[in-house]
Amino acid sequence: MTDCNALKSAILRGKRAEVKTIVSAAIEAKEDVNMLIDQGMIPAMSEIGEKFSKGEAFVPELLIAARAMQTGLGLLEPLIAASGRQKKGKVAIGTVSGDLHDIGKNLVSIMLKGADYDVIDLGVNCDLAKFDAAVAQGAQIVACSSLLTTTMPFMKEVADHYRGTDVKVIIGGAPVTQEYCDQIGADGYSSDANSAVKLVDSLLAC
Amino acid sequence: MKFTICEPNQNLADVLARNGVPIDRRCGGIGTCGRCRVQLLTGDWLNGGKEISAPAEVLACRTVLKSKSGVVDVPEESLAPQKSSAIVSSWNITEALPKTKEAVIGIDIGTTTIAAALVQGGEVIASETCFNPQSAFGDNVIARITASKEHLNELTWSVRQAIAGLVQKLGNPARIAVAGNTVMSCLFHGIDPTPIGASPFIPPCKEFPVRSGMELGAGMDVPVYTVPCISGYLGGDITAGLLETKPQEGELFIDIGTNCELVFHGKQQFTGAAAAAGPAFEGAGISCGMRAVKGAISQYRGEGDYTVIGDCEPQGLCGSAMTDVIAEERRREHLNDFGRIQPHAEALNITKDGQIRLTEGDLEQLLKAKAAVYAGITTLEEHCGCTATTLILAGGFARWLNLNNAAAIGMIPERAYRIAGNTSLAGAIRLASEPEQTMGRLLETARSVKETPLNSFPEFTDNFIDALMLP
Asked: A49 vs chain B: nearest CA distance in angstroms?
């Protein structure tokens, strides 16, 4: 039987090898994948997220834990799909057209996965066609990232494109602000990966 | 300073700048940096599209006058910084400068500082520096590109005027040559740099024509040459640096700044890359951060034990001292692997009174910046399939840096080091001294570098995350 606390602790300490060993053993023993997620991964990510929002953890800790969780989740993904697990919702995420920076975007992506969302990660340099394809697959939220003030204006195109539809557009990235979000009429902004999860929670709750 | 504004329906920051008030628009005037804060004393205004009446505190770049006139109070801290770094005209080059009969001027157009030197017979006769006046439009090249959308002429005009001022102070040259990053070079020539701002980042121009000093506003009819660029993010400053330092096989040339440029002479070829490190080590976004100017703590040995540039009362910390703080406090076990203060505290005091300090939030920014530099170096090495034997460190930041401490905090790997200084300026002087011969060599150098997009490699993210921790 897998020790979910050991899995959680390995994630929080960023120990990828430990995570891999624990998850591989659980898969080998044909254990319930949902238990690993519900009692190991989600609690780990919510604990680090909570610490982050209280100012007790910073981006380095978040990145290190997220990467370790991703290692385990990557092994489980085929099994999750087969198990028919019900996720909290579906989010498409991508760095906008013209921009190739993805460390922040990847962190948001992993945090959302760790909060039990189905995430379609579209990568970098995403045009409207890429976002549309994800929406056609059922994405309820389109999350846009940008690190360059020169590529930020594309977020307005995305917001304009989905205005009046059921799809919500949320934005983030180093130069992006709440004021910019209001200015372009996007549905939400978050300043960091942890509050991005809360933002998605609140948008899908109503 | 109070000003009466009588130009309705126009952006307040633009109006102030046009009237000679150097309002700080380091984000490019898009309302994100919060630096252009002003007090509206009278009048009706539109702020972010909403009507407001004085008195109110607003960002000038988001504000438009609605009534016929209005009075605005601009505090000093909302003006663009005017101080420039002290010594920027020194270098360590592999080949002596040509001994010309006539005097020539070389100019390094930095994003922050412009440095110029008058040279005759291979010797520097005089040198001058000034702040790049474009800084009012943003402190980094991306902000300048954003600003060029509406202010291309002002950007071009202001840098030419600053250069003309330096040239006039230095005297009558027979020839002038400039070197700068690709955005600075384009703006100097009045070329719209917009394509550099987005993927695939192709520069509108890499090789520039010879122009007359009259045309460029230098006020004299002498030829002005420009060092050719390599790519959108590897500019003429790097081309010049490579010519001046001649990296041998196994040597890696690096200029650490907001953008970190790297060129590795790996197995038989030159591979170049740029990595965004952010402005933390230049003092931006750090609570007590500042540039390496008078009043900055430049070296730190322990709480209350430090060296201040200009030997005066300390006003803040510059990047080299930030590196020292992390290294020293880590040695004393006051910082854990993640850069968190042990035992738990909000900040590390630098001065005994705690007036100058580094908070945990500051430390986070610094860890991210140093990790980007380290990941840039290691990812480029992995890509080239070999490890550098020597790091050649060019540019202003490396001048003040304690290299042992930089290695101790995991900003640069432990290698042999060579400090190169302002090789961009040295290259510009060589070009002005022997234009035809040098231009050929510069073009050959620029064309020999193969650029590789570091952040498209998944290893870059992995190396970055690994490098976030303190060794």
From this structure: 16
Asked if residue A193 and residue A94 are part of one domain, the reply reads: yes
Backbone φ and ψ for B456, nearest 5 degrees, come out as -90, -5
Alpha helices in chain A (DSSP H): 4-12, 16-28, 33-36, 42-53, 59-83, 103-114, 128-136, 153-162, 178-184, 193-205
Same domain membership, residue A37 and residue A57: yes
Read off the pLDDT of each residue in A71-92 and give the average, rounded to a whole number. 91
Cβ–Cβ below 8 Å for A63 and B469: no
Of the candidates A103, A150, A183, the beta carbon closest to that of B146 is on A150
Residue B269's identity, in one-letter code, is: Q
Q: Does the interface ipTM go beyond 0.90?
A: no
What confidence tens digit (pLDDT) does each residue in B127-146 have? Answer: 998 889 998 898 889 999 99
Where residue A189 sits, what CATH number does that domain have?
A: 3.40.50.280
Q: Do A183 and B48 touch (CB under 8 A)?
A: yes
pLDDT score, position B430: 98
Q: Which two tokens stand for residue B353?
A: 């009174």
Nearest CB among A60, A101, A149 relative to B30 is that of: A149
Report CB contact under 8 Å: B142, A148: yes
Domain boundary among A18, A53, A83: A83
Closest residue of chain A to B143, computed from CA coordinates: A149
**Per-residue pLDDT tens for B186-237?**
999 999 999 999 999 999 999 999 999 988 777 789 999 999 999 999 999 9
Residues A79 and A94 placed together within one structural domain of the fold? no
CATH of the domain at A19: 1.10.1240.10
For B193, the closest chain A residue by CA position comes to: A150
Number of domains in chain A: 2
Return the residue of B nearest to A101 by Cα. Answer: B455
The residue out of A83, A99, A126 marking a domain boundary is A83
User: Tokens at residue B263, please?
Assistant: 């060129």
